[in-house]
Specification:
A hairpin with a 2-residue loop joins strand 3 and strand 4. The strands form two sheets. The protein has a two-stranded antiparallel sheet. Strands 3-4 form a two-stranded antiparallel ribbon. About 70% of the residues lie in helices and about 5% in strands. It has one domain. The relative contact order is 0.15. It is mostly helical and about 525 residues long. It is globular, with a radius of gyration of 28 Å. Helix 2 packs antiparallel against helix 12. This is Lysosomal cobalamin transport escort protein LMBD1. Belongs to the LIMR family. LMBRD1 subfamily. Keywords: Cobalamin, Cobalt, Coiled coil, Lysosome, Membrane, Transmembrane, Transmembrane helix, Transport.
């Protein structure tokens, strides 16, 4: 009966994971379709973006499953369950490990082959719209560079010495042979871990840039709201009249037949471009004023304020938890050479206390982890939409609803994929004990009497460590980089919070109308305001 009950609960866990997969696919499809350009949409880029984002979210959904399985093997008194013998435990651990192998391998395939090839293919398609064979060859040529980087990362990860004994009388050949033996014993875990950790560092930089700012921008924008469409339309009408009067004054100079000076011609050209932009704004504002969606948003304005307050409270909770976790590492870890890793917690961390408690009532912790991941996705998207996609000081693309180009969409999903990869380490930083051991307990021996401990596990020989933790901390120097990245994340969040507080209300068509838009984009945008 106990075996049947255990099997049924494990089956329920995997069924919930299956439902999460379905929800992830639906979310990715809706998300990509919402932002892709209707006029420039491409089937291959759409499928690539949906697939890449879905794989990243699925890999993050495997984290609570990993934690649930290692926690479910033990009783509340610290002993292993009857069915959780060494063979069963090993099979469960291997199943989760193979799941990570598969998902992370697919992520490497997307990052270093599929997404770059599709991106460069459409870049060449815009320049040479006739020769498909030439476009494929050029795209493959550029993609080869990404494959070379991937191969280098895998080789470094495969043969980097992690635990090589220092024998003075050993030859160079014996040392090389030992490296190959270590690679074979790890089954490629170190190679894959090094590659994924390298991508996670890039995801950390993206999270510092976009997520940290989005965590402050999103809630404050919800609280402050947008300006009135009627008020903006009145101001826009006044701007149109002013521009038209300036054009008339300049053109009146040539009524007697004299040509305009080069300076006046440049000014007229600039004013004409400005006038076209203002008239597009006029059409958009008129559509919003008449739309049922704008009226609905105005009706739920109090709900937006509530959500904004909730999001800012969650952001502050995350920041405090991250600060306490990093402070704990700074005070009680072995330092830089160990990657600032600690096996226990010495400072009280709200999320680290909450998650193990919720883990005892399945699936509350799963719901909370999913909520955290989705929160990071939405705040990251808010940061990207406010800032755009930049390469240092060069702005590459804008992300706008219904008007995002295929190349920008691929960039967007690439950034979100890397941020979701970093989310696993962020959750570890917020709740290290939960990510390592879940709710496992261990036996404490005092004066030869076995007492059942009520403390959470910190001993590797008595408890099973999650496969996620093994992937995250295979290399100590990556852990050190993550540690300093967390401090940078906190700093950028605080700066973004100050900047967002000082900013005024956003325009009701913020980012939707730009001077480089064509008049055809009006038809593309109008579908949202009917």
């Amino acid at each position: 009966a106990k075996m049947a009950a255990a099997a049924s609960e494990l089956l329920a866990g995997w069924c919930l994971f299956g439902l999460a997969l379905l929800a992830i696919l639906i979310f990715c499809w809706v998300y990509v379709r919402k932002y892709q350009s209707r006029r420039e949409s491409e089937v291959i880029s759409t499928i690539t973006a949906i697939f890449a984002l879905a794989v990243a979210l699925i890999s993050s959904a495997l984290l609570p499953v990993d934690i649930f399985l290692v926690s479910y093997m033990k009783n509340q008194n610290g002993t292993f369950k009857d069915w959780a013998d060494a063979n069963v435990s090993r099979q469960i651990e291997d199943t989760v490990l193979y799941g990570y192998y598969t998902l992370y391998s697919i992520i490497l395939f997307c990052v270093f082959l599929w997404i770059p090839f599709v991106y460069f293919y459409y870049e060449e398609k815009e320049e040479d719209d006739g020769n498909t064979c030439s476009q494929v060859k050029t795209a493959l040529k550029y993609t080869l560079g990404f494959l070379t980087i991937c191969a280098v990362l895998l080789l470094i990860g495969a043969f980097v010495p992690l635990d090589i004994p220092n024998k003075k009388n050993s030859t160079e050949w014996e040392k090389v042979k030992l490296l190959f033996e270590e690679f074979g014993s790890s089954h490629g875990l170190t190679a894959l871990s090094f590659s994924i950790s390298s991508l996670t560092v890039i995801g950390m930089l993206a999270a510092i840039t976009y997520t940290a700012y989005g965590m402050s921008a999103l809630p404050l924008n919800l609280i402050k709201g947008t300006t009135s469409a009627a008020y903006e339309r009145l101001e826009n009408t006044e701007d149109i009249e002013e521009v038209e009067q300036r054009m008339l004054r300049i053109k009146s100079k040539c009524r007697d037949g004299r040509p305009l000076s080069s300076r006046d011609r440049r000014t007229v050209q600039q004013l004409e471009e400005r006038l076209r932009t203002l008239r597009r704004r006029e059409r958009h504002l008129e559509s919003i004023e008449k739309s049922w969606w704008a009226k609905f948003c105005e009706a739920i304005r109090p709900l937006k304020i509530v959500w904004g307050v909730f999001f800012i409270v969650v952001a502050l909770l995350f920041t405090v938890s991250l600060f306490l976790s990093n402070l704990d590492k700074a005070l009680h870890s072995a330092g830089f050479d160990s990657g600032f890793i600690i096996l226990g917690t010495n400072l009280t961390n709200p999320l680290n206390m909450l998650l193990p408690v919720l883990q005892t009532v399945f699936p509350l912790d799963y719901i909370l982890i999913t909520t955290i991941v989705m929160y990071f996705i939405f705040t990251s998207m808010a940061g990207i939409r406010n800032m755009g996609i930049w390469f240092f000081w060069i702005r590459l693309y804008k992300i706008r609803r219904g008007k995002t180009r295929p190349q920008a969409l691929l960039f967007l999903c690439m950034i979100l994929l890397l941020i979701v990869l970093h989310t696993s380490y962020m959750i570890y930083s917020l709740a290290p004990q939960y990510v390592m051991y879940g709710s496992q307990k261990y036996l404490v021996q005092v004066r030869s009497n076995m007492l059942y401990g009520v403390l959470f596990a910190f001993l590797l020989d008595q408890c099973i460590v999650t496969r996620t933790y093994l992937f995250l901390h295979k290399f100590w120097f990556f852990s050190a980089v993550y540690y300093f990245g967390n401090w940078a994340f906190i700093g950028v969040f605080l700066i973004g919070l100050i900047v967002s507080c000082c900013k005024g209300k956003k325009s009701v068509i913020e980012g939707e109308v730009d001077e480089d838009d064509s008049d055809m984009s009006d038809d593309e945008l109008s579908v949202y305001y009917r």
